[in-house]
Amino acid sequence: MMAYINAFWVGGLICALIQILMEKTKMMPGRIMVLLVCLGAVISVFGFYEPFQEYAGAGASVPLLGFGNVLMKGVKEAVDESGFIGIFQGGFKAGAVGTCAALVFGYLASLVFNPKMKK
Q1: Closest by alpha carbon to 50, among 31, 28, 70, 30?
Q2: Are 68 and 39 in contact (CB under 8 A)?
Q3: Whole-angstrom Cα distance, residue 54 to residue 58?
Q4: What is the pLDDT of residues 15-48, one digit of tens each?
Q5: 108 to each of 35, 96, 102, 114, 116, how far by Cα in Å?
Q6: Among candidate residues 48, 66, 70, 45, the one with its CA nearest the CA of residue 57
Q7: What is the dihedral of CA 71, 72, 75, 77, to 10 degrees?
Q8: In this model, does residue 64 exceed pLDDT 90?
Q9: Residue ranges covered by each domain of the chain
Q10: Angstrom distance (rounded) from CA 2 to CA 55
């Protein structure tokens, strides 16, 4: 039960902080998304993301911070395996499943809900 509570409050805190960032600055949502992915990768490099993810569970792995962590873990593994070329292939291999799922489910949702362009 505590795992659900930790995931809820940590994920909610991340979302609340990002909402405050969006309200108080003029940063566009795309830049904030890139900032989150890069921040997750940087936290992963310093080794802080794994303990954070063990504590918060899905509250840490579902937001874009988690995607940055996944990319960095993929790059680390590919560099250990393939050397320098792993810098370029590791992120693609690690992030492929999540990216593919987002594209497929986004497309299926567009078929079901008939989206329209804003005017």
Answers
A1: 70
A2: yes
A3: 9
A4: 999 999 999 998 888 899 999 999 999 999 999 9
A5: 28, 18, 10, 10, 15
A6: 66
A7: -110
A8: no
A9: 2-113
A10: 10
Burial of 112 (0-12, 13-18, 19+ CB in 10 A): exposed
Count, residues in the chain: 119
For 67, 70, 103, 112, 119, the CA distances from 97, given in Å and listed in that order, are 11, 11, 10, 22, 34
pTM for this prediction: 0.77
Q: Quickly tell me which residue has 């693609």 as its tokens.
A: 92
For tokens 């949502």, the residue is 29
- Give the N- to C-terminal CA distance of the chain in Å, as an integer: 46
Split at pLDDT 50, 70, 90, the class of 10 is very high
Asked whether 49 and 60 are in contact (CB, 8 A), the reply is yes
Which pair of tokens denotes residue 47? Answer: 């080794």
| Residue with token string 């911070």 | 65
Rg (the chain; Cα; Å): 17
Distance in angstroms (rounded) separating the CA atoms of residues 58 and 10: 9
